[in-house]
Amino acid sequence: xxxxxxxxxxxxxxxxxxxxxxAGLSPExxxxxxxxxxxxxxxxxxxxxxxxxxxxxxxxxxxxxxxxAWAAEDHVRLGRKLFATPAxxxxxxxxxxxxxxxxxxxxxxxxxxxxxxxxxHIQLRDVDPEALRTACAAxxxxxxxxxxxxxxxxxxxxxxxxxxxxxxxxxxxxxIRQQNRLTAFAYRAAExxxxxxxxxxxxxxxxxxxxxxxxxxxxxxxxxxxxxxxxLDPRVRRMVVNVGNFHALAFRLGPAGIEGVFExxxxxxxxxxxxxxxxxxxxxxxxxETVFAEMGHGALVLDxxxxxxxxxxxxxxxxxxxxxxxxxxxxxxxxxxxxxxxxLAGCFGLLAAMADLLPDHAxxxxxxxxxxxxxRAPWEVEA
Length: 383
Fold this sequence. Notes:
CATH topology of the largest domain: Nucleotidyltransferase, domain 5
Number of helices: 13
Helix content: 25-40%
Largest sheet: 6 strands, mixed
CATH class of the largest domain: Alpha Beta
């Protein structure tokens, strides 16, 4: 009988990182894919339609914006027509009036969309189970996981007039105060908050796997997964930084839980500024106002005790696709490589969250991640 398998899909801006854990085997023997992210795929499809001079209909669900949104703006700017259903249009902005007014997108109902002819149809979604099954089948793998984890970055649906940066950071702070653990940012599919619209849409797309599913924020997943690097002592207080393509997020962590968090936009940082913020965050002096005024999301320090960023203790750990920003840093950070693959840190964090939220599957997942040595697992996911 085939062993149980657990699928983790970490959707970023540049790539979507996919990992299949096989129960009873070491994590290094899991199957993995690093592919273009959904927003990059949609970007290319929009650009191709633009070059052909075609009108476009976007439907499906809310997904990550960025590159696909910029391609949509270019399409309209060149005088091409672009229609979108409400759910798809929220990929660009939760305020649909702003999507129409500022981007020139024509919002149509599902019924109206069905009546459109002579348009190129592009379906939006962060997770594509059919494509993954097809890719795996080409290599003789029947993709039928016992449980699924999906990670996406979600600003949340901020009310009109409320900063989405502030709304996002208020959400982070609220979850920490409620549970104070990284897996607080993961939910069973049926329990995702209504205003976490991208998480809900990703879970909806993942329903096609016909398996229990959790959805989680990408940055906490990466921070949690990075700590499975066997060189890290889970008992050491440390800061773990995820330098993503769009967002840089750092958590201060200790045996009592999360000691603080700050989040900024990677594109607004260079190495000196990021180093300065990390030093201030370690000292307990970084303020929300400082980060927010720089167009970042914010900062929260729950434990003001200084954190000594000692290289020999690996108390500053870095992961993420743009971790190279700190390669030559005077802070001498440790570049985490959990189970030999930095790109899968988010997937390993997802698996740890699956074990937390899906008790029926906890034992085989934890046994694989701990590799027979529970002491190597991060403190918050030990059995």
